[in-house]
Amino acid sequence: MLAAAGPAPDQPSEPGWTPTDDLPGGSSRDNGRRTPLTSRRRFLLTIGAVLGVLVLVGTGFGIVSLLQGPRLTAVQVDEAQAIESSGSRVILTANQSLAEIDPAQVTVEPEVPFTVDAAGRGVGVRFTVPLDDETTYTVSVADVTGVGGGPSAELSTSFTTPASTIYLLRRDVDGDDIIFRTDLGGENAVPVFSHPRINDFRATSTQLVASVEEDDGSRLLVMDRDGADQRELKLPGDGYVGAIQVSERGNLVGYNYSDRELSDTEGRASVLVTQSLNGDDDPQIVEVGGEEASVFVWQFVPDSAAVLFIDFDGALALIDRSADTGVQSLGLATTIQGITRGTYTAIVERLDGTVVELNLADGSEQPLAASNPDYGTATSITPFPGGTLRHVVSRDDSGLPIGQAVIRVDEAGAAEPLVEVGSEDSILQACASPSGQYAAVVIAPDLRENSYDGMLLPLPENVETHLIDMDSGKELVALTGFDASWCQTAPRF
Predict the structure, then answer these.
(1) Is the peptide bond before 373 cis (omega within 30 degrees of 0)?
(2) What is the rounded distance in angstroms from the CA atom of residue 47 to the CA atom of residue 51?
(3) CB neighbours of residue 192 within 10 Å
(4) What distances in angstroms separate CA 437 from CA 81, 156, 180, 261, one per listed residue?
(5) CA–CA dist 295, 25 (Å, integer)
(6) Mean pLDDT in runs of 10 for the chain (493 residues)?
(7) Which helix (H) or strand (E) holds 36?
(8) I need a labelling partner for 147 at 20 to 30 A (CA). Which of 9, 78, 253, 396 fits?
(9) What's the pTM value of the predicted model, to 2 decimals?
(10) DSSP-derived secondary structure for 47-100
(11) Helices and strands in the chain, H and E counts
C-alpha cells in the first residue's frame, strides 16, 4: 500500500506558503496541475469579483434612484366599483418609502372630492363620492420625496371607468314580472329574475334583493346580480314586506314589516326591520324606548349602517346598526326627502312645513335654499353629489294640477327644468345615478287610461323610466319599467 503524502488528517500542518505562492510561476504548481488549496483560493477570488460587480451595480442603481427620486411601481384600482358606490380607492405604490404626503400635493382630474392616506411606499386616494362612467381620471402626487431625502418626483396614473348599467323592474299583469339589466342605450336588456308578482327590489354592487308576493304573504329573496344563487331571508313572521332598502357598507337589508293577522290589539304594523344580507342573523326590529316602533318613513344613511326614521307620532330619530349607541332623537318631522352621499346631511321637512338640511352628526340644521329661479314648493327632493332633483307641480286657480316638472338645482342654487309633462301624464319619481351624472325619471303616461295594478305597492300598469344626461339635459332613452337600481327607495305616494 502506498503511503499518503503530507501529514496525517488528524495532525495540523504548517502553512508552508506565502502570499506570493499563488502567483503565476509560484510554488503552488506541481507538474502543471493546481493543488486543492490553489483552486479554493481562485474560487474565492471569483466569488469576490462577482460580489464586487453586484455591489457596484446595486450602488449604481441606488445612485440612479437617488438622482431620479421615487418612481411608481404599482397601481391598484377597481374601476367598476368606483362608479357604483362611494369610498373606492386608488393606491399608488412607489419603489421606496416616502416622506410625509400633504393632501395638497394630490390632484384628481376631472375634479372629485377625495381624502388621502399615505404610509410607507403607498399613497391611497379615497373618493368620497362615486365617479362618472366612461371617464378617464388622472391622479397625480406632486413633489414626492423619499423618506431619506433626495430629489423630488411626481407619481401619476390614469384609469378609465366602464360604461354604466342599470336594473329595472317591469311588471306584467298577464305574465311574470321581470327584473332586467340594461345598458344606458337600452339595446342590451338581459332578464335576471322573474316571478309572477315582484313588489319591489334593490341592488348593491354585488347582489339583488327582491320582495315577492305569495298567497300567504311576502318572501324576501337575495341573489347575485345575474340572478344566480337565490336564497330566502327569514322574516319576523307571516306577513308583508314593503319599502325595502339596502346598506352597501353595512351589508344590510331593511324593510317595513306588517303581520298578516292584524287587529286593534294584536299584530305588528309597519315595524322597521334590518338584517344581514348573508342571512346569518335573525331579523332585528327597531325599538324606541324599549318598544317596537311603527315607522312611517325611513332611509339608510349612505355609506353607513345608520337608519334615519320617522315614527307614526312624527318623531325623527337615528340609530346606528353597527354600534350599540341607542336611539338619537332629532325632533319632529313629517317626511325625509333624502340624504346626501358623503356628507351625513339629510333633507327633512319639519312639522311647520319648512324644509331643512339637517347635520346628522351634531344635530345642527339650516333652511334649504330656494332655487334660482324659484319654481315653488317641491313635492319631493332627491339629493345627489353636486345638487338636488326637485319635483314640482303647477296648479290652476282651483288647485288642479296642470303640469309637472323635475328641476335640477346645483349647489349654488341655479335651477333649470330637466323633464316636463302636461296634465295628462304624471311624474312618479326622480333619482340620480350614484355620481349624479344621469337622472332616472319615472313617468306614468296617459294617466286617465292607465289603470293601477293590484300589488302591495300599487302603480299604473304602463310606467316608463326616462334616462337623462344631467350635464346636457339630453334624453338618452325611455325604458319600460320602474324601480331603477340608482334609486334608494321605490316610488312613494
Answers:
(1) yes
(2) 6
(3) 18
(4) 16, 25, 21, 45
(5) 103
(6) 42 39 41 52 57 49 60 95 91 95 96 94 95 97 92 95 96 94 92 96 94 94 95 94 92 94 86 92 90 93 91 94 86 93 89 94 92 91 93 89 93 94 94 95 93 91 96 94 93 75
(7) helix 36-68
(8) 78
(9) 0.82
(10) HHHHHHHHHHHHHHHHHHHHHH---EEEEEE-HHHHHHSTT-EEEEEESS-BPP
(11) 2, 38
Q: Note every long-range contact of 72-79, with CB atoms under 8 Å and residues 24 or more positions apart, other chains counting.
A: 72/155, 72/156, 72/157, 75/157, 75/159, 77/157, 77/159, 79/159, 79/160, 79/161, 79/162
Reading the block at residue 385, the C-alpha cell is: 353629489
Residue 40's identity, in one-letter code, is: R
Residue 329, phi then psi, degrees to nearest 5:
-80, 135
- Please enumerate in sequence order all residues whose Cβ is within 8 A of that of 24, keeping only pairs 6 or more positions apart, or say none: none
Per-residue b/e over 62-95, b at no fewer than 16 CB within 10 Å? Answer: eeebeeebbebeeeebebebbbbbbbbbbbbbbe
**Count of Cβ atoms closer than 10 Å to residue 239 Cβ:** 19
Q: In angstroms, rounded to a whole number, what is the distance separating the alpha carbons of residues 212 and 332?
A: 33
Residues with Cβ < 8 Å from 58, sequence gap 6 or more?
none
Q: How far is CA 360 from the centre of its chain?
A: 20
Q: Which residue has the cell 303616461?
A: 445
Q: Which stretches does DSSP call E strand in 128-260?
A: 136-146, 149-160, 165-170, 177-183, 190-195, 198-203, 207-214, 217-224, 231-233, 239-247, 252-259
